[in-house]
Model the fold of this input.
Amino acid sequence: MISDLPRDVAEDVLSRLPVKSMKAVRFACKNWNTVSKSRRFRKRYLAEIKAASDFMVVMVMDFGLYLRSVNLHGIHKSLEPSINHQGKLFHLIDGVEIHKVCHCDGLLLCIPRDGTRMVVWNPYLGETRWFEPIARDPKLASYYAIGYDQSSKSSCRRNYKILRYFHTSGDRMRYEVYYFNRNDTIPITILSDWEVLYHARGASVKGNTYWFAQEKIPPDSGEISEIADFLVCFDFTTERFGPRLSLPIHSYVEDTVTLYSVRDEQLAVLYQPWNTHFLEIWITNKIEPNAVSWNSKVFLAVDMIPLLGFNFPCDGASFLVDEEKKVAVVIETAKEKEGRYAAYVIGEDGYFKEMDFGEASPNNLEYPPIIPYVPSLAQIKQRTGKKKKQIVKHPGTKAKKT
Done:
């Protein structure tokens, strides 16, 4: 019987399966469940995934999660890039409609459509944990992130946390930190002179999350010719937002600006002005919560007029970069195919390929359609005891119960 295969043979068979199939395999037979959960196999499996160097992404569609991989092997050797549609990830719980997703260290923070709960999920290990956020006005747009602090040097013992924040009124913003290792929830109200646009997405780098932000303009300011823009970072160690971090570009209203985490080590920014087809991608050479420096040379600068003929929308253009191959992949709705997504592979010297990326569901409420994903062995600490709520005042902030 196949369940009686020798351990080495079973590992060879299981190592060829996609991530989305691992949960089904564990239910198939006791022996395979044991093999798949062994640390030796897990390390081998994840090492082989990373060695394949495909870009794995999670796609939110029809309120479910779908796994895709982008293969760029040999694109400079006359080989075509390709998309592998690995299928739908298993349901977390029947009937739960996923609206937003964030990623950090192999963990997915999933926000259901009704916004009344949050769930953290490791698709590879099959572990989940639900969180109940503090009630807030449903008309206020919430932003989410998952990260970890730097208190432990071991990647196996990281202290994961969840952030939710939203702008309330005037110059006030409230943020909440949810913990894995204790049952506290900390709501803090602070004064903020910046804001994140409704469609902006955070990018996680080394356990902290960065957003593209703009200076908050008072409602009675009249006509504004330009607005200061910058990066802001939430530091999961200090549990505070850091100072404004400079950008290599300056944007205006309706310009396209999106972020991407490069190997969880650097940050990339895609920029395309609304009134031109010229696209730029810049990559940092140093990124920390309180400091940033950018490479002096742009990673990619391309005139898109002869290639595409239209601008990417300001609320879309999620992207990936391959530094070695000097290419970017931008995911957006297809121009010529209604109801489909397209992956645009853009490189130097006029390199350009368009690939079908799947159906564009009318139920998708959020851009971008993809979240970069890397499987990991990060374990989700489960809740113990009774949940508590604390009100904490940080130095230099105004904290109050809301």
